Amino acid sequence: MQSYCGKRTVDVITAGTACVVFAPLAAGIALATWLEDGGPPLFLQSVSVITRRPFTVFKFRTMRDGQATYVGRWLRQTGLDELPQFINVCRGEMSVNRSPATHR
Fold first, then answer.
1. CA 51, CA 73: separation in Å to the nearest integer?
2. Average pLDDT, the chain
3. Model-level pTM greater than 0.70?
4. Torsional class of 42: left (φ above 0), alpha (ψ -120 to 50), beta (otherwise)
5. Tens of pLDDT, residues 46-73
6. What is the per-residue pLDDT for 62?
7. pLDDT at 99 exceeding the cut of 60
8. In the predicted model, what is the mean pLDDT of residues 82-96?
9. DSSP notation for the chain
């Protein structure tokens, strides 16, 4: 139990800091996505994990009508499409670090 509390503390501090530091970038990405095609900037994906209850993963939307958008291609190349997942970490649904025992 103590290792989980320590891991959770690291998750909250890391994700909280990342949310604050990257907030201007995330706002710019959301605006660029919205300006490109007027659609919502976030893509919500329901994920079922074997050991836990289902939850919704947040990502920046990279596609429209089955094709990657211009902003979406750039987001995928840089990995920034997954930036909103720090919200999932803050909510306790994901973790920024995984112990070797969970990689089986």
1. 33
2. 87
3. yes
4. beta
5. 887 776 678 899 999 999 999 999 999 9
6. 95
7. no
8. 91
9. -HHHHHHHHHHHHHHHHHHHHTHHHHHHHHHHHHHHHSS-SEEEEEE--TTS--EEEEEE--EETTEE-HHHHHHHHHTGGGTTHHHHHHTTSS-S---GGGG-
Encoded amino acid at 15, one letter: A
Query: Angle 23-37/70-78 helices, nearest 10 degrees?
Result: 150
Q: Cα–Cα distance between 82 and 61 in angstroms, integer?
A: 10
Tokens 């509390």, residue located? 5
Q: Which residues of 67-76 are buried (b: 16+ CB within 10 A; e: fewer)?
A: eebebbeebe
